[in-house]
Structure formats: structure tokens, C-alpha cells
Amino acid sequence: MEKLTIFTPTYNRGYIIRNCYESLCRQSNKDFLWLIVDDGSTDNTEDIINSFINEDKIKIIYHKQKNSGKHVAHNKGVLMCETEMFVCVDSDDYLSDDAVQIIHETWANVENDKSLAGIIALRGENTQQVIGTRMPRNIERSSILDLYEKYKFKGDTILTFKTAILKIHLFPVFEGEKFVTEAVVYDQISRKYDMKLVDKILYLCEYLDDGYSKNILSVHKKNPKGYMFYLTQKVENAKNFRDKYKAVAYYVAGCLGMKSIFYYRNCDYKFLKIISIPKGILIYVKPIIKSTLVKYKLVKF
Q1: In the beta sheet, which residues pair with residue 162?
Q2: What whole-number distance in Å separates Cα of residue 79 and Cα of residue 168?
Q3: 207-241 b/e with 16+ CB inside 10 Å = b?
Q4: How far from 292 is each of 162, 237, 299, CA to CA, in Å?
Q5: What is the C-alpha to C-alpha distance for residues 222 and 152, in angstroms, rounded to an integer?
């Protein structure tokens, strides 16, 4: 039986998912299965996946659900998963040819360590050009949160988790909403576990115009319950006054983004939510300024 599930949530990406499929077919180590949860695609995705299955080059499991959002598809994938490792690869992205092999080799140092939840490796524009920074030098393990906060890592990553840990850290689901940031689950796991760091590019991607990354502000506005849940969790998990002040400032910025006095009044930290207003305004304004500059091509995304 395979040890690794490569999970792909997809929605109307029939035009590009072949890139992901072909990268999986090129893997030097074929000890994995590809689990696809189709979030109610209305294009030809199902026909394309069936053609992949008929080619019989790799093991594929395909499940189609009612359109509910990526986080619901992720929950379904985790609950369906029967392997000990689980890694998410989006349908518009793909893996380096040796990614599965490196994951398996690294797993030997992870699977029996109860303090580790999995592996973090790098994303790149190609196998040579990293997106963001390299992993911190001489640091072999870190929580996801500390990697960014303590070691000042920048950029996106590929995360391979112990499936058993993901099964007890599912995404919350809010009626009428179709997005909850991955950071909700990652922050929960960071409170309990470290991750093994791998300073290699295993994941290749570009940010499409119809993707979440380039449209995150509008996505948050359309899904206020999920976004404010994430910001509330950040405040509750803050370890000291400085971190809590910063988290409340982000919460204030979120309230401004949602244009909601309700969420602001609902914040229990009365003193902090007042003194953090200036910082919250700054946090709110910065992405608006950046998106405006990008729109007029004064800076790159």
C-alpha cells in the first residue's frame, strides 16, 4: 500500500490540470496515489481526469462534490485519505521530478518523532528560482508559525503532514461561505508540533489571475465569518502582550476590511482594541495601496 497521498482540490481548472498530472507521471518514485476532490466543476474537468485514469500511469482516486469551497474539499480529502502522509498540490501547480523521492527520504526522520507533524519544503518559479527566501541556516526543525515569525522566512511552502494529525485539525465550515484560510489549521498545528525543514524546491507554481492569492482581499470580504474566525484565533493564541497587540491590530484591520462594527464590538480586549487602532489602520491600508500600484503596473505582484 502507498504511504503518500498527493491531494489536489480543483474547480474549473480543466485547462491547466494536465501540467500537475504530467509532473506526477514524471516522478522518480511512484510510491503515492493522487486523490482529486473536484469542488463542483462545470467545465470538462471530470472528462479530463477520467482520461488520466484510463491511461493507467499512476493511481488516481477522483471524487466530485457540490461546490462548497477549497477548505471543504480539503476536509473531504483528509477524511478519505488512508495513507500516513498527506500533501496538497493545487491543480494549477506541479512538483519537481524528485519531489516524492525527497519526501520519502525525509520521512524516515519524521514518522516516529511525536513532536513533528510533517515536512516543510520550498516553492519555486522553477527548480532553481525560489519564491521568497531559503530556509534558515542551521535550523532543522521549527513550527510553521516560528518559521515566519522567529526566523523571518518569506514565501510559500509545500507542507507534507502526518494524516492522523490533519484528521483532528479539520477546517471549520461556515454556512454560506466558501473560503477559510489555510493558516487556521496551520496555526493550530503550530501550537503543538514542529515541522522538519527541507531547503529544496519541490513545488513549482505561478499565481494565476483567477486564483486566491491575487484576489485575497475580495475573497475575505465575501467570507467574513471565516476570516474573522482566523483573526480571533490569532488573538487567542498570542503568547505575550506584544504578540497580542499585533494580533488585535490585525483584527482591527479585518473589521475595517469587513466594514463591520459588530466584529469590533465583539472583541473582548477593550484596551488593546483601542490602542491598536492606528496600527490596524496601517495594516488595512497597505494592501490597498499595493493592489492599486499593481493595477497601474507601478510594481509587480
Answers
A1: 85
A2: 10
A3: eeeebeeeeeeebbeebbbbbbbbbbbbbeebeee
A4: 40, 33, 9
A5: 30
Give the separation between CA 40 and CA 9, rounded to whole angstroms: 10
Q: Report pLDDT for 113.
A: 97
Interatomic CA distance for residues 44 and 254, integer angstroms: 37
Compute the distance between CA of residue 226 and CA of residue 224 in angstroms, rounded to an integer.
Answer: 6
pLDDT in tens, 273-292: 999 999 999 999 998 888 78
CA distance 55 to 224: 42
DSSP assignments along 86-140, one per residue? EEE--TT-EE-TTHHHHHHHHHTTTTT-TTEEEEEEEEESSSSSBSS-PPPTT--
SS3 166: helix
Averaged pLDDT of the chain:
94
The residue to which cell 519526501 is assigned: 103
E-strand ranges in 23-81 read 33-38, 60-64
Residue identified by cell 508540533 is 193
Note the pLDDT tens digit of each residue in 202-261: 999 976 655 555 567 789 889 999 999 999 999 999 989 999 999 999 999 999 999 889
Checking DSSP bridges between strand 194-204 and strand 116-124, what pairing results, if any? parallel
**Which of helix, strand or coil describes residue 167?**
helix
Residue pointed to by grid coordinates 486566491:
212
Mapped onto helix, strand or coil, the DSSP state of residue 142 is: strand
Query: CA-to-CA distance for 178 and 238, rounded, in angstroms?
Result: 27
Please state the rounded mean pLDDT for residues 117-132: 95
Instruction: Read off the amino acid at residue 176.
Output: G
Q: For residues 36 and 73, what is the distance between their CA atoms, to the nearest angstrom?
A: 9
pLDDT at 190: 96
C-alpha cell at 248: 488585535
Place of cell 483532528: 168
Look up the pTM and report it: 0.91
